[in-house]
What does this fold into?
Amino acid sequence: MKVAAIILLVFHLVGFARAKDSPNIVLILADDLGFGDVSCYNPEAKVATPHLDKLAQQGMRFTDAHSPATVCTPTRYSLMTGQMAFRVPNGGRVFEGVGGPSLIAPGRLTLPAMLRTNGYSTACVGKWHVGLTFFDKDGQPVRGKGVEAVRRVDFSRRIEGGPVGHGFDRFFGTACCPTTDWLYAFIENDRVPVPPVKLIDKSKLPKHAYADDCREGLIAPNFLMEEVDLFFLKKSREFLEQHVRDSPDKPFFLFHSAQSVHLPSFAAPQFKGATRAGPHGDFIHQLDWVVGELMTTLEKIGVAENTLVIFTSDNGPEVASIVHMRADHSHDGARPWRGIKRDNWEGGHRVPFLVRWPEKVKPGATSAQLTSLTDVMATVAAIIGTEVTDNAAEDSFNMLPALRGEATAPIRPYLLTQAFGGARSLSIRRGPWKYLDHPGSGGNRYENNPGLKPFVLPDSVPDAPAQLYNLDSDPGETKNLYAECPDIVQELKAMLALSKSSGRSRPTSPQ
It folds into this structure.
């Protein structure tokens, strides 16, 4: 037998042996769900989330967890790779419709690829939104956005750069935001089995304050706008049940990437009127129900006790949901923080983060460890006993000691976040000190939006080029200390510059 073949066999056997002792993993990512949208984080929430609250009761609730970016695409890139998106070309971009190519470079190690190498079956269900490539009838990549770009796609051709090109064995979902972005059709693995055939008829869709994000686009006959999350739930259940039936000795990784609660808030018919908080409240309720159904499925197929479940969100709540939920229902999806989706203030990126892992994570535990969604990769690597090399997951820290209740000191030396402007709108946090390397929110223009004008706060240092806040004494980020604490400004600015120039925040391994 050739040496190379022997090496591959050894790696396979080691991976199989390691996998037998590894937990199953279910990662549930909500869309635009704010810190204050979950009742175990916000006692004043007007929508009960009993299934998410139960996850917190059965596991650990992180109170200082953050999305790496304040919008969809860069956060999802960072979750899949453990690397901040601003470090790669177009890393601040948000894809739409048939947008691409993939942000993930060929050869870049991803979370699912790492798990597959270590013996896992891997599946992605739901919204991808990290970019992929569709082709026209001449075999040329389709670029651009809008309905005209969708019209140019040859749906008989395979799609490149999607989940199955980056470590997932199977995929069922959508290219971008399922009910927003011009292409209303499901992708299965690397094909669109039922192509879009006509323009969507929006006259038949709900009309309310949370329904305006649905753009004109081409829709497939099997794409029911109000039941997308139920489709995703069905496919996740099918994967779980089939896997346990066909490969009971092999661990699995399921990435369930929900549609909810991204606008438009199109809850399925059975959930309309389920809350007293309007259409968006019903949508939050539906998301909570889906989480409960996934947990019930794990119990039913007998794997709940050996499954690590992580629930979180890709960024803070959207403008329209905040404006109308506050005004109409006294519900604040960003509570108690300043800012919303796209903003670099806390409300834009501080997110719910729940972990359930029976017999490993103490029930009812709370952690104040500073953490980012980039940390999922290094943490999972530690859980399954594999190493993350220096050329991968450059911004990922191992949170396993926090999960075990063993961490007595901060694991992360600092936290990076990027707002809507990408590399031009970064912030760095060390301990209570948070430095925003830009003026303003870094995202929304409050002065130009009538709905946001009531939430404008007076700028204590209007001429400052950046912002500095102490979150211990000023969690609402109301007093800019840029002029009062120049030494801390310079220190954090230097740390940010070093992290940018070095290409990493996680230290390299000792030589």
User: Anything to note?
Assistant: The first strand starts at residue 24 and ends at 30. The mean pLDDT is 95.
